[in-house]
TrEMBL record:
Coiled coil (UniProt feature): none
Name this protein carries in UniProt: cysteine desulfurase
Family stated for the protein in its record: Belongs to the class-V pyridoxal-phosphate-dependent aminotransferase family. NifS/IscS subfamily.
Provenance organism: Pseudanabaena catenata USMAC16
One GO molecular-function entry: metal ion binding
Enzyme type, top EC level: transferase
Higher taxonomy: Bacteria, Bacillati, Cyanobacteriota, Cyanophyceae, Pseudanabaenales
E.C. no: 2.8.1.7
Cofactor(s) required, per the database record: pyridoxal 5'-phosphate
InterPro entries recorded: Aminotrans_V_dom, Aminotrans_V_PyrdxlP_BS, Cysteine_dSase, PyrdxlP-dep_Trfase, PyrdxlP-dep_Trfase_major, PyrdxlP-dep_Trfase_small
Record note on quaternary structure: Homodimer.
Amino acid sequence: MQIYLDHGATTPAHPEVIDLMASVMRSQWGNPSSLHWWGERSTMAIERARLQVASLINADPEGIIFTSGGTESDNMAIVGIARQYCTPQHMIISSVEHSAVSLPAHYLERHGWEITRLSVNRQGQVDPAELARSLRPNTVLVSIITAQNEVGTIQPIEKLGQICRHANVLFHTDAVQAIGKIPINVQVLPIDLLSLSAHKFYGTQGIGALYINPLIAPLIANERSLIPLIQGGGQERGYRSGTQAVAAIAGLGLAAELAEGELIAESRRLANLRDRLYALLADIPELVPTGMRGNDRLPHHLSFYHQHIDGRRLVREMNFAGIAISSGSACSSGKSEPSSILLEMGYSPIESRNSIRLTLGKSNNETDIDWTAMVIHQILHRLA
């Protein structure tokens, strides 16, 4: 029996997405920048996908810019905003950001920018009051992750965004882990820039988008809301040059449409499975949950640390049993160092090294959950 519980790392592409992408590659392979019929067909596929992605977050389609994924979207938002300024300014991030945000911020810091990293509590949440205290006259951007990838904690995005809006400061959120799992409405939430990635909600790897609020131009120094990272033919309204990956974009659009249609029901189903697994593991005192619980946690996400056993060892033992889980995030699970996220949350180096993450998805059911709980009990009993 094989069970995949690492949907936070990547999700399998939906069969309908695969079929659509194959169809586009067969019949809509023209260069969308070309003016002839073949180019127009490709353009139609791209613009349909733009509408589908915009609908998922209730955005103006003009604000959807296609990228290669969440990492490029984060870099485009952070470095693209920073490049407007001739002299270094001030930027705020949280201490539990994905490396796609924390490393660009570190890059800017090496070039003279002042970076404030907001602390988090034991559950991984930022205090909005600390954000308000940290704002300065030269603060130009705040970037706070919507939902932390390692521990599943959802940040108080509405409160954080409102603080920025009142201070006339741009607000970006890395929503890669949250899109398709929880409702996000950029017409209600005070979000200026938002990153997403298709392969987290049953699209394919290598395609994503950055949402840029069309109304943010009055808040910034230049006419363009950010300076592009890639110069070239001016595709994607000049924000992201390069011939678009038409099939991948079409797949992203369909994945967004499917996610929107089933978001509420699937999130409820996954939350029930998540809580069932928590309950089945509650009698293991050495396995300690991390992150928030209930509504402030991603519905498909569980995370723990074991008091005595290295997380990487647990991942290997579960893999031998045919069950895929991870230790920390997928981008750092190959490293032997303690999780920097758990360290920032106040856990010890040993606790941070012993962390594991289980993330559920469409293919999982109660049988998977019960079998997983039984296997974890058996492995921990054997290793005790």
